[in-house]
Automatic annotation (TrEMBL):
UniProt keyword annotations, A-Z: Lyase, Porphyrin biosynthesis
Domain (Tetrapyrrole biosynthesis uroporphyrinogen III synthase) ranges: 22-245
Protein name per Swiss-Prot or TrEMBL: Uroporphyrinogen-III synthase
Catalytic activity as recorded in UniProt: hydroxymethylbilane = uroporphyrinogen III + H2O
Pfam families xrefs: HEM4 (PF02602)
One annotated GO biological process: uroporphyrinogen III biosynthetic process
EC number assigned by the record: 4.2.1.75
Organism: Dokdonella koreensis DS-123
Keyword Lyase: yes
Enzyme class: lyase
Coiled coil: none
Amino acid sequence: MRTREGRPRIVVTRPTLTAAPLRRAIRRRGAEPLGLPGLALEPAADPADARRHLRAALSSQVWIFTSPAAVHFAWTLVPDLRLPQRISVVAVGRGTAQALARVGVTAIAPAGREDSEGMLALPVLGAVEGQTLALIGAPGGRDLLAPALHARGATVQPVHVYRRTLPMWRPAQIDAFCRAEEPLATLVSSGEALDNLSRHLPPPASARLRGVPVVVSSERLAGLARDLRFGEILVARSPAPADLLDTALARLQPGGEGRSRTVPVS
């Protein structure tokens, strides 16, 4: 067993609001989490308007939740929110489905890919012509899901219950990252977070971020990391936290350089 000083350190770039489960998983695996969020999550700019849209969406046939944060902010806006049984509820992945279960809602989630492509492969979203679907989340993002559902004949009602913003990093947070001992790796599952970190951190922190292995959740993010000049890029099997963590720990173990699939930087 390594001493505390020799444990792998895993940089968690998830928003502080949603990072706790991943931090606990890292500790259970014998590593140390180091928080450096790439995004901050804020309530909708106009809560009253968001609340109206949320209640209006109760006439939809399907509700789609794009993140655990979407669940958190939806029930923060309307604490007594109750979904009629006729509404099918779709979650982007296991974490979002678990968040829904905690508020008493059973959701359908992809068994494999935990992203827009995974949701689009679900039978419940396959035959949606003539249906109205509520897309619960935040403005921005990949914008893949709504156009694909429109193409299938659905009416999509975006319901923005929160916002993603640039984090305000504390000096102590930046200093802890810059001083963190190796072995060290970073987990990233958001292109916006990766871009924020690489472009807005102070130069010494940004340089260090590019100099340690970064584990990303998709080939798309690997391409972005390559464009941003990250040095060592590893692609996890899926966006699931367990797969991201498995990839990072395999790389950080002695001899791990030879066991991980690294994306070359051209």
